[in-house]
Amino acid sequence: MMRRQPPAPALLGAGGLVVILVLWHLVATFGFTRPNGSYGAVPPPLAALGRVGADLVDPAYWSGIGATAGAALTGYLLAVAAALVLGVLVLLAPPLESFANQLGVVAACIPIAAISPIVVLLSPTGSRAVSVVLALLAVEFPMIIGVLLGLRATSPAQLDLVHAYGGGTLTAIRKVRLIAAIPALLSALKIGAPAAFLGAMTGEFFAVGVDSGAGRLLISQQYAGDYVGMWAIAILASAVSALGYGAIALLARWLAPWTAHTAGQTAGALR
């Protein structure tokens, strides 16, 4: 008797997307469409997607998304650099491990509503510092965990070989540990990319003197009561976050194809 093959993941994903769109349309049509035909808080998916298409040809939206992406990239790179330095310091001085873990937990747990006004007070008017800080905080915890996991993925035999040839701790880090850390590091980079963009966008809700960015566009649409525009910006922001994840995934496949079979396991450990 032949066993039935399970559906392909891509087919399951497409089916799930169709179900979500149908449910979205039904909720919007029967729950949020006004008697005069105008849309309420939840517009139909075709209306929202049509607005996305219109926004894509508007330079103001590209400028806003670019400004948010720039702040997200700054916070993202700072978080990566800090995690790498911290990881190396932990290897050189193991007692620092508890400090590194606590720092990651603090970065993940610190209330955004509490830290954002403080950052705004400490930064000049018109600065995007709060967006950069929130992007950094969103990325720091998975980066620290990914770097620490990766740097310790080296087998004792590899370290013994380095030491047998006269190599010290720094040589072991440079020649063995950093290479072994690539799978965990790439997984952390992928998880952090969308988190950085969403963190930077959230920071624009608190920024003072900043008039561009995806978050500011969302606020302006909210004040205008343009629900379709709000949903279009939410879809665009989600698409940009997904593109960031996909770009790093493609880069990882090109730079380190041998990590493909371990990426899922490492990503699971980071969540």
Automatic annotation (TrEMBL):
<feature type="transmembrane region" description="Helical">
    <location>
        <begin position="228"/>
        <end position="252"/>
    </location>
</feature>
<feature type="transmembrane region" description="Helical">
    <location>
        <begin position="184"/>
        <end position="208"/>
    </location>
</feature>
<keyword id="KW-1133">Transmembrane helix</keyword>
<keyword id="KW-0472">Membrane</keyword>
<dbReference type="InterPro" id="IPR000515">
    <property type="entry name" value="MetI-like"/>
</dbReference>
<dbReference type="InterPro" id="IPR035906">
    <property type="entry name" value="MetI-like_sf"/>
</dbReference>
<dbReference type="GO" id="GO:0005886">
    <property type="term" value="C:plasma membrane"/>
</dbReference>
<keyword id="KW-0812">Transmembrane</keyword>
<dbReference type="GO" id="GO:0055085">
    <property type="term" value="P:transmembrane transport"/>
</dbReference>
<keyword id="KW-1003">Cell membrane</keyword>
<feature type="transmembrane region" description="Helical">
    <location>
        <begin position="64"/>
        <end position="91"/>
    </location>
</feature>
<protein>
    <submittedName>
        <fullName>ABC-type nitrate/sulfonate/bicarbonate transport system permease component</fullName>
    </submittedName>
</protein>
<comment type="similarity">
    <text>Belongs to the binding-protein-dependent transport system permease family.</text>
</comment>
<keyword id="KW-0813">Transport</keyword>
<feature type="transmembrane region" description="Helical">
    <location>
        <begin position="129"/>
        <end position="151"/>
    </location>
</feature>
<dbReference type="Pfam" id="PF00528">
    <property type="entry name" value="BPD_transp_1"/>
</dbReference>
<feature type="domain" description="ABC transmembrane type-1">
    <location>
        <begin position="65"/>
        <end position="252"/>
    </location>
</feature>
<feature type="transmembrane region" description="Helical">
    <location>
        <begin position="103"/>
        <end position="123"/>
    </location>
</feature>
